[in-house]
Write a structure and sequence with these properties.
- The complex is a heterotetramer, with two copies of chain A (about 220 residues) and two copies of chain B (about 230 residues).
- With about 220 residues, chain A is α/β, with parallel strands linked by helices.
- Chain A has a single domain, classed as Glutaconate Coenzyme A-transferase (3-Layer(aba) Sandwich), CATH 3.40.1080.
- Chain A contains six helices and twelve strands.
- Chain A has a ten-stranded mixed β-sheet, sandwiched between helices.
- In chain A, β2 and β3 form a beta hairpin.
- In chain A, α1 packs across α2 and α3 runs parallel beside α4.
- Chain B is an alpha/beta fold.
- Chain B has six helices and 13 strands.
- The two termini of chain B are about 30 Å apart.
- Classes of the chains: A alpha/beta (about 220), B alpha/beta (about 230).
- Chains in contact: A-B, A-D, B-C, B-D, C-D.
- At the A-B interface, β2, β3, β4 and α3 of A face α5 of B.
C-alpha cells in the first residue's frame, strides 16, 4: 500500500458504524476505499448524501461527482440537495465525522489547511465550514511535510482554518487524540518507535499509558 | 448501484419508545399548519405515554380546541408557545389571559426562517418584516442596502415532532402536498427528530431527486396508523 | 352579489395577466372566484404555487389547503414547498401581487390588519411578510367598519402591520391609488357619489381628473 | 385538475435574445461546481452574442483554463470574482497577481448561504464559519448562545445563469444529481434568471412534489442543445 492509502486505512477504526461522514479532498477521499462495505453514509458538500464507489470506465455520469470533482456513484437511499442545504447540514451539526487534510497542526490540535503565507489566498472551499460544523473532526495527513519538516508544531505558522481543535490526528506513523490538555499519542504504527515520533513532532504531546506500559 | 448502508438500529419505533426521551421543561418543535401536516399520533402519544410537562412548544399554531396541540394545552402541559397565529384556538387566548401561558409571537416568515436558520447552523439573521411595528419593538435594527431590518436569533429545540407521508428504512422523508409546511424545516432544527409517517418503504424506493428530508436529520420513525 | 364578492370583483382589474398573486384571508380569498380562468398563478404561504378552484364535496384532500385552512386543488404546473421557502419567495420579492384585508388605512396608505388595542395580540400569520415583500399590495376591504365608522383615517389607531404603504385600496364604493402624496380616488362604483365617499372617508384624498371632468 | 395558466409570453428564448439584457458592469451569478452544473451554453453566449464586460461574477469557481467561466476571464470580461475556490484555475491566480482581477473569497457554506439569503429577502446573517481566521478579519462579531459568529451580508445579482435538467413550459425546474449544487439558490437571488435546460416538457409533466425551483423564479429558458 502506498503512503496515502496507509494513512487512509488507519482512519477507518475511528469512524463509527453507520456514521454520516464527509471526506475532504486528498488523502481523506481515499478513506472511502478502506471503509468496510456499508459502514458509513458519505456526504459530499456539493450536494449528495450516499456517495458510492468510483464508477467503472463506461459508467461515468458527468453530473455525478464528489467535492474533489471526480466521478462517483450514488448508493440506494442517496439524496441530492442544493449547496445551501448541504452546508446547512454541515454547519448545523448533522454531519457526524469530517476527515480533513492538514498542512500544519498545533499543540492544541488546531489545523491550517487552506492558505500559505506569501502565496495569494484564492481558495478555501468547504474546509472552514466542515471544521466548524462536523461533530467529530479527524485529520488524515502525512506525519511530516515533503521536505521532512514537522507538520505538528507548537504553533501553526500558516493561517488557521478555524479556532476549533480537531479530535483525532492520524498519520502513517502515529495517532493522537486531542483534548483540553492538547495532544495525546494513542497509537504507533507497526515498526514505528516512540523516538521516531518524538523526533518528527515539533509539539509537546503526552503518551497514553497503553503505549508506555512495559512489554 | 451497490447495496445500501445497513441501519445500525431499527429506525421504526413504537410511539411510547420514540417519545420516552421527552423531559419536563423540554422545548419541542411540532410541525403542521393548523392540523394539516400535524403529527397527531405523536401529540396524542405525548399525553398518553409521557408525563412531560412545563413544555415550550414551537409551532405555527396551538392546534384547535381539544384537537392536536390544543389537547396538550388543556392538559396543562404547555408553559410557553412560540408561533405566529394562536387566535384560531380560543383556549389559547383564555390560557394567556389567565396567565397560564407565555406567548412569543413572531411573523410567520420570521418563525419559519428562524427554524431553518437553527437547523442550518446560522446564529441569527436580519429581516425587514416587523420593522417599525409592535412586533419589532425592542429589537436590534440594522440598515442593509438602504432598508431597515430587525434582528432575530435562530431557534432550536430539544425534540422535533414532524409529519411526513413516507419514510424509507434509512429515514429519508417525502411529504404530502401542503402538509409539508413547517415539517422539513423543523426536522433540521432539533437534537432529536421523530417523524410520523403513513408508510415505510425499502431503501432505494424513493427517487434521490425527490427526497425532501435526507435521512441524516431523522432519529426515529413512528407509523401514523393511517396508511 | 353580496358585499364581500362585490369588493373582490372590483380587485380583478388591478391584477396583471399571468401575475403571481397571494390572496389573504377573508375578502381577498374571494378574488380567486372572480379572476378569469388562467389569469394568475396563486401562491399560498403554507406552501403551494398554483392554487386551483375549491374541490367538489367528494374531492377534498385533507393535505391540500390554502392559508385560510380551507380545501383547495392544485393546477397543472403547481409545486409544493416548505414554509421557509414559501416566505423566502414572499420576502424576496418574488410574489408580484398580494391582496390583503385591512382594519384601518391611513392617509399615506399604510394599513393595520393584525391587532386591536386592548385585546391580546396573539396572531399575526403572514400579514407582515406579505406587506413587506410583495411587489404590489392591494387592499380589499369594506369602506367602513360594521358600525359605520370610517376605516380610512388620517392616522391608524390600531397597530400598523408595516411601515410600507400599499399601492391600491379597493372598497365596494371606491378605488384609491397610493403614491408619495397619499391617496388618490381613481374610481367610484356604480351609483356611488363623490359626496358619499367624502362623508365615509376620514382621511384627505385627491380626486383623479377623470372623475371630476364634466359629464 | 383544471387547465394550466397560459404563459403570457414565450419562456423559451434563443441564447442571444435571453442574454441581451446583460449590461457592462453587471453582477452575474453563475451556477455550477467547477464545470459540473455550469450553464456552458449561456457562458459561451455571453462571449459570442454580447459585448458585456467589467462583470462581477458570483460563482464557486471561475471555471477551468479556457473552459466555462475561464473563457470569460481570458477575454478580459471579468473585473471581480466572488467565490470560494479559485486555485483550480491557474489563469485566475495569474490575473489576480497581475492586478487585473479583484477577488472576494468566502467559505463555500457562507457563499451558498449568502446567495440563499439574498433570494429569500434576508439582509444578512451570522455564521461561526471563519470566525478567528484570516477570512473573518474585520468582520463584525457577535456571540450567540455562547459561540462567536461573524456577520455576512446577503448577495444579490442583476442576472443569474443557471443550469437545470428540465423545465416545463411555465419555467418550473428540476436538476440532475450533483449538477444541482448552487443553481437552485442562484435562481432565487437575481433580478433576471435565465435557465439552461436539456429539455422543455409540457405543463403538468413534472410532479409538483419534485419541482425544486418553482416557476416564479425563472424569467427565461434556453436549450442546452444536449437533450
Amino acid at each position: 500500500m502506498d503512503l496515502p492509502n496507509r494513512i487512509a486505512a488507519r482512519v477507518v477504526p475511528h469512524i463509527p458504524h453507520g456514521a454520516v461522514v464527509n471526506l475532504g479532498i486528498g488523502i481523506p477521499t481515499l478513506v472511502a476505499d478502506h471503509l468496510p462495505e456499508h459502514a458509513a453514509h458519505l456526504q459530499t458538500e456539493n450536494g449528495l448524501l450516499g456517495v458510492g464507489p468510483t464508477p467503472g470506465p463506461g459508467e461515468v455520469d458527468p453530473d455525478l461527482v464528489h467535492a474533489g470533482k471526480q466521478p462517483v456513484t450514488a448508493r440506494p437511499g442517496a439524496s441530492y440537495f442544493a449547496s445551501s442545504a448541504s452546508f446547512g447540514m454541515i454547519r448545523g451539526g448533522h454531519v457526524e465525522v469530517a476527515v480533513l487534510g492538514a498542512l500544519q497542526i498545533d499543540a492544541r490540535g488546531r489545523i491550517a489547511n487552506w492558505a500559505i503565507p506569501g502565496k495569494p489566498v484564492l481558495g478555501v472551499g468547504g474546509a472552514m465550514d466542515l471544521l466548524v460544523g462536523a461533530r467529530t473532526v479527524i485529520v488524515a495527513t502525512t506525519h511530516t511535510a515533503k521536505d521532512g519538516a514537522a507538520k505538528i508544531l507548537e504553533e501553526c505558522t500558516f493561517p488557521l482554518t478555524a479556532r476549533r481543535s480537531v479530535d483525532v490526528v492520524v498519520t502513517e506513523a502515529a495517532t493522537f487524540r486531542v483534548d483540553d490538555d492538547g495532544l495525546e499519542l494513542v497509537d504507533l504504527a507497526e515498526g514505528v518507535t516512540l523516538d521516531w515520533v518524538r523526533t518528527h513532532t515539533a509539539a509537546p504531546f503526552r503518551v497514553a499509558a497503553s503505549l508506555t506500559a512495559p512489554v | 448501484m451497490t447495496a445500501p448502508v445497513t441501519p445500525t438500529r431499527p429506525l421504526v419505533r413504537g410511539v411510547a419508545e420514540a417519545l420516552a426521551p421527552v423531559r419536563d421543561g423540554a422545548t419541542l418543535m411540532v410541525g403542521g399548519f393548523g392540523l394539516v401536516g400535524a403529527p397527531l399520533r405523536l401529540i396524542e402519544g405525548l399525553l398518553a405515554t409521557t408525563t412531560a410537562t412545563d413544555l415550550t412548544i414551537i409551532s405555527n399554531n396551538l392546534g384547535e380546541p381539544g384537537r392536536g396541540l390544543g389537547m396538550l394545552l388543556l392538559e396543562g402541559r404547555v408553559r410557553k408557545a412560540v408561533g405566529s397565529f394562536f387566535t384560531s384556538n380560543p383556549d389559547v387566548v383564555a390560557a394567556y389571559q389567565a396567565g397560564d401561558l407565555e406567548i412569543d409571537l413572531l411573523p410567520q416568515g420570521t418563525l419559519a426562517e428562524a427554524i431553518r436558520a437553527g437547523g442550518a447552523g446560522i446564529g441569527g439573521f436580519y429581516t425587514r418584516t416587523g420593522w417599525g411595528t409592535a412586533l419589532g419593538e425592542g429589537r436590534e435594527e440594522r440598515v442593509i442596502r438602504g432598508e431597515p431590518h430587525v434582528y432575530h436569533e435562530s431557534l432550536r429545540a430539544d425534540v422535533a415532532l414532524v409529519r411526513a407521508r413516507r419514510a424509507d428504512e434509512l429515514g429519508n422523508l417525502v411529504y404530502s402536498k401542503t402538509a409539508r409546511n413547517f415539517n422539513p424545516d423543523m426536522a433540521t432544527a432539533a437534537d432529536l427528530v421523530i417523524a410520523e409517517v403513513d408508510e415505510v418503504v425499502p431503501v432505494g424506493a424513493l427517487d434521490p431527486e425527490e427526497i425532501v428530508t435526507p435521512h441524516l436529520f431523522v432519529d426515529a420513525v413512528v407509523l401514523s396508523g393511517r396508511a
